[in-house]
Amino acid sequence: MTYAGFWKRFLAYIIDYFIVFIASFICGFMIGILLGILMAVFNINPQEAEAALSFAGALVGLSIWFLYFAIFESSKLQATPGKLSIGIRVTGLNGERITFLRALGRTAAKIISVIILAIGFIMAAFTQKKQALHDIIAQTLVINK
After folding, report:
1. Which pLDDT value is given to residue 56?
2. pTM of the model
3. HEC profile of the chain
4. Chain centroid to CA 55: how far?
5. What is the helix (H) or strand (E) element at residue 140, kind and residue range?
């Protein structure tokens, strides 16, 4: 196994970011239209509608984010479209496919890396197995195909 380096992982993340952004934008747009129709039909206060839209948008955006990574990384592909395009995949410590729950936990652990000023992501450049903090927590590796 050869471990995927920081820059390959970063480039894959940028690709995935744009895919998730577009999907979230489309879903958010549809939710906005739906809430606009509901506001008109039920004469809902615009401030209440704005709060509902913000909450719904955040919930949908987070759901898309978590499901995107968890579904793709636990699939037979073992990689998101971004990772596939770069030629890397996510595995367990022995090279096995990870479960959906482990992939979901791996994605959730990325929050810790964000909170500590992205240091958890940068760790992938310096650890022996090129693991970021979320990889260490989830006991996963990102390897070259």
Report:
1. 83
2. 0.91
3. CCECCHHHHHHHHHHHHHHHHHHHHHHHHHHHHHHHHHHHHHCCCHHHHHHHHHHHHHHHHHHHHHHHHHHHHHCCCCCCHHHHHHCEEEEECCCCCCCHHHHHHHHHHHHHHHHCCCHHHHHHHCCCCCCCHHHHHHCEEEEEC
4. 19
5. strand 140-144
Q: Which is it for the CA torsion 103, 144, 79, 65, positive or negative?
A: positive
- Candidates 1, 17, 2, 21; CA nearest to 85 is 17
Instruction: Tell me the CA distances in angstroms from 29 to 20, 50, 68, one per residue in order.
Output: 14, 13, 19
Q: Which pair of structure tokens corresponds to residue 142?
A: 């990102």
What would the pLDDT profile of 34-93 be if each residue is shown by its tens digit? 888 888 888 888 787 778 778 888 898 999 999 999 999 999 999 999 999 999 999 999
Read off the tokens for 28.
């958010």
Select from 5, 141, 7, 1 the least CA-distant residue to 79.
141
